[in-house]
Amino acid sequence: MTGGFRKKRNEGTRRYKRLFLIAAEGAKTEKSYFERNIRPLNDQIIIEVVDKPTHASSPLDVQKILASAIKKESGALRAGDEAWIVIDRDQWKPKAIQAAIAWTQEQSTVKCHCDMALSNPRFEYWLLLHFEDGNDLSTAEECQKRLSEHIRLVTKKNVPEGSFQREQVEAAIKRASKKRFGKSSQSLQSTGTTVYRLVEKLLGDRIPE
Fold first, then answer.
1. Half-sphere exposure of 68 (CA within 13 A, CB side)
2. Nearest Cα to Cα of residue 2 among 54, 61, 52, 72
3. What is the CA radius of gyration of the chain?
4. Would you list the domain boundaries of the chain?
5. Of 53, 58, 108, 101, whose CA–CA distance to 83 is shortest?
6. Which residues, in sequence order, are CB contacts of 103 under 8 Å at separation 6+?
7. In Å, what is the CA distance from 66 to each residue of 21, 40, 87, 129?
8. pTM reported for the whole predicted model
9. Partner residues linked to 23 by β-bridges
10. Helix (H) or strand (E) segment spanning residue 158
């Protein structure tokens, strides 16, 4: 749900904080990562991962969730706010993913920039990059197995609070950016993630290559 963070921002706060609305395919892993691990690294922003009303997780479903959140906040959005779709490559057809990308481009306004972060094979690949280069894997099962060698996701795939130091997050950004994933429709078949583009903004600094 949205709304509580807006009240918190307006009451007793002199400096404006940028709002990042995030609608994610997964209900647990992404939410616990962004809210419990990234939010503490920058107190100058507000991160709100929108709750999923159902288990539906197609690119279109996630898009609708974000659209609804943007609509609810439309009167309070200010220049600098951003809204992101975070999805996995999974079995979704390239056409569905491209449609979600096109939607974010169409929805971007001066008040709220819209964008999308994609991971192939899944979001856990982004988590893996906090520990290693993530080479020589292509399936979700391989990704999960490799990640389990570094970190244990707790009940319902929650990422434990404080799992990553800032240095690890910055290392993941560098590793992901070097793969040049997501620059074309052909690259959707390769392993990679564009979550780094969102996280770099959440940290508030441009990470040098």
1. 14
2. 72
3. 16
4. 4-10+17-203
5. 108
6. 63, 114
7. 8, 23, 12, 26
8. 0.88
9. 85
10. none
Length of the chain: 209
DSSP string, 57-117: -SHHHHHHHHHHHHHHHTTT--TTEEEEEEEE-TT--HHHHHHHHHHHHHH--SSEEEEEE
Instruction: List the pLDDT tens digit at each of the 209 positions of the chain.
Output: 444 444 444 444 434 789 999 999 987 999 999 999 999 999 999 999 999 887 778 999 999 999 999 999 888 889 899 999 999 988 888 899 999 999 999 998 888 999 999 999 999 999 999 999 999 998 999 999 999 999 988 776 899 999 999 999 999 999 999 987 875 555 677 899 999 999 999 998 665 55
Structural tokens at position 200: 């770099």
Query: Looking up tokens 């800032």, which residue turns up?
Result: 166
